[in-house]
């Protein structure tokens, strides 16, 4: 077990993952995506440390989707080869989602945004908005809980049904949003007062770099993909 | 213009694009090296606007209309490139939470340097030096959200100082700090100021916490005469909801068992350092903390959070007051001076009006015990006076009030009894006067004696008979 996948350059990791998701879309046999799914899992087991419980939870909706594809195509299909088509469609869902999760679960959002700005030339204005927004999330969550609590104090409901909670959402959202807009304005002023102009001419304390490892990752996925293709073609 | 002037404003006026009259008029200022200015004036008089004009964010950030000349180091503001002025003028804003954009202290400091395109090789050294100078080295790798209010305020200041400014603007830096932390911040800051000879402008409603720091004062806006507040004695008829409110709460891990007794018709103030558990205590009594053990002897408890708009669910002040189905809506609107804004949207009125709307709503629901969290933070003298009036109205009606505040002058003016809290342990009630004359007790709870807020003799008298 190593943490190699976590240390890759996020932009390169994202691009490589996208390329292979795209490439996979051109192969329609059931075996290539299935093998790919397995191979990606093996890579992730070997080179990352992730919370597999979380992986399973995130995989669950995709798995349901895959079953849905299979069912629709197999049961309602009429063609001779509908089993192959059905399997191919559902295995694809698995392959796509495993590749996406490989990226999502091994990338820190902060480093990802930094890398987008440094490697892919995302505008600092947008990048720092995202970063600040990300910092806001826990605060907003706390405020959401607090607002719901104090509003319940004003309008006591003895049976807290899911429906009544849902119905109270708009009244919770208004103070939350009013506060968030004000906070965002303050933050924007504070950033500007500290010399942030949004110009690309800035230096970086955390330089996100890329190394030869990043090419190993591309090479590894190419190798796996070719192997899957060859084996898939024989089966 | 003599070169010794750091900054000069002459006849500056500023108008917001959607308002008919200017918020600032005829502002002329000359700042010299090492000047220390206090900026005073009621809320909405343009203090923050002045700061935005000084640090160059206005007029660009809001398309306002500016007349007059602004000169910084012999050069008009308009001739500076974007971002250049903020290398000379550092601003620290009121709410430390909304001025951070990175997770850790070190990264936050680096953000300032990145904006100035300081080469990466020099950042390490500058960050280390600033942290040493400000005594924050131990916090270098801490996550900002986990710091206390006082620590956040120092980090925010350090972030401004790292750019080696000539002028430092502080917008209510003490608003959220307990009195002792505020004093310590003032000492810390004035030592730094002396070493660097900054020109300093500070907006603050609690000028007494700065002692003799300032050598100049700017007064903005019309001076609103403050009427003498007199506490009316309760009418002879028995007030509603009279009696004693008792509560016992305990929040595992945060607050040890605290027993409260609040007499109806009285105001109890809860004070103590930042992070002592004051807000937790209020929330626990109000029943907002699910994990708390709670025994209360009435269900009619009202709670006004630090941001009163959290409570609002309707689109007018009147509806807000009437929401709970109370029948005395108009009475309370009148009593809490909300008549003029009764039809306005509660989100659009002033902070003081929001708080009074929340109070009126709670009272109209016939809640006889009211808990107020930090109603004084960031309120000017006039708003405080209105709040005091409102609170006296409320107790005259027979409600029992528990108020959390850091403002000891305010506390000494309103409190019938004082509860002190520290590290989750509450003690008291104390007679306010005895606390303010007891340095050891003040020290222990990080409070300072009230100054200037003369205690009304008529007010203090009933306390002694009470306990």
TrEMBL record, chain A:
Organism: Chryseomicrobium excrementi
Keyword Membrane attributed: yes
Location(s) in or outside the cell: Membrane
Keywords: Membrane, Transmembrane, Transmembrane helix
Cited CDD domains: EcfT (cd16914)
InterPro entries (UniProt xref): ABC/ECF_trnsptr_transmembrane
Protein name: Cobalt transporter
Pfam family, one: CbiQ
GO cellular component annotations of the record: plasma membrane
TM region positions: 55-74, 94-116, 215-234
Bilayer topology: Multi-pass membrane protein
